[in-house]
Inverse folding.
């Protein structure tokens, strides 16, 4: 199938400024991410940034770069501008691959795009993976998702959902049907543009989860289990050594 990959990359990260240009295994992180996108076989791969330093670095290793505005609050907002600048059609499928995920398996980029293509009633697709520990289930930094029988998302939350009402203690909780959300998205371009124009809803503001805006608006999100579990992303400086070790390995 044909799909596109856009990679939002900001220099002004609050926790790790200049993150896309961090050197990992001899190359800037954004180059590793770009390579994962190319390995997926995507028809187009574009790096979206508002910083000339990232543009210069990306163009030096042969990437296509789209310069976007600096005021965007989310990756989907930046993607909508990219789609507009690139002249993509409303029924084109674009995958949003974050610029700090150099260990993303290329296979799941294909998977999330195919999940959207196979479900014309879906506006978006994303992925999940089974939760394997109670600690994961209770961690508010691990986003949980519950799905219907056709693997469409019903709700996303930082809270432990579904809640095992009859468990006397946390360690007795059943993890059956408990899934961790993987923050990889595929959009139909037409919906992406309308989504970026929507105002945030109360659920999104409370949970700090942008995808709740889509559910609140009545859009359907297909959410299959990922064929491969992505590796560690780079959020803070302590992640750098672990990720570099895996890249070298």
């Amino acid at each position: 199938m044909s799909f596109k990959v856009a990679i939002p990359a900001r220099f002004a990260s609050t926790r790790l400024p200049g993150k896309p240009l961090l050197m990992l295994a001899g190359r800037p992180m954004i180059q590793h991410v770009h390579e994962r996108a190319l390995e997926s076989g995507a028809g187009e791969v574009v790096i979206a940034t508002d910083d000339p330093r990232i543009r210069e670095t990306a163009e030096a290793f042969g990437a296509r770069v789209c310069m976007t505005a600096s005021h965007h609050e989310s990756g989907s907002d930046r993607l909508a501008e990219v789609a507009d600048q690139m002249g993509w059609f409303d029924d084109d499928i674009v995958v949003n691959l974050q610029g700090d995920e150099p260990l993303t398996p290329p296979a799941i980029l294909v998977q999330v795009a195919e999940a959207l293509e196979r479900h014309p009633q879906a506006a978006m697709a994303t992925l999940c993976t089974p939760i394997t520990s109670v600690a994961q289930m209770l961690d508010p930094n691990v986003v949980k998702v519950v799905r219907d029988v056709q693997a469409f998302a019903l709700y996303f939350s930082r809270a432990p959902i579904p809640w095992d009402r009859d468990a006397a203690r946390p360690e007795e909780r059943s993890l059956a049907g408990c899934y961790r959300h993987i923050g990889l998205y595929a959009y139909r371009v037409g919906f992406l543009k309308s989504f970026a124009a929507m105002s945030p809803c109360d659920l999104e503001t409370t949970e700090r989860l942008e995808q709740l805006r889509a559910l609140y608006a009545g859009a359907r999100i297909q959410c299959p289990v990922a064929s491969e579990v992505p590796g560690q992303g780079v959020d803070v400086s302590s992640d750098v050594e672990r990720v570099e070790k895996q890249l070298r390995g």
About this structure: Residues 4-228 form a domain with the Spore Coat Polysaccharide Biosynthesis Protein SpsA; Chain A fold (CATH 3.90.550.10).
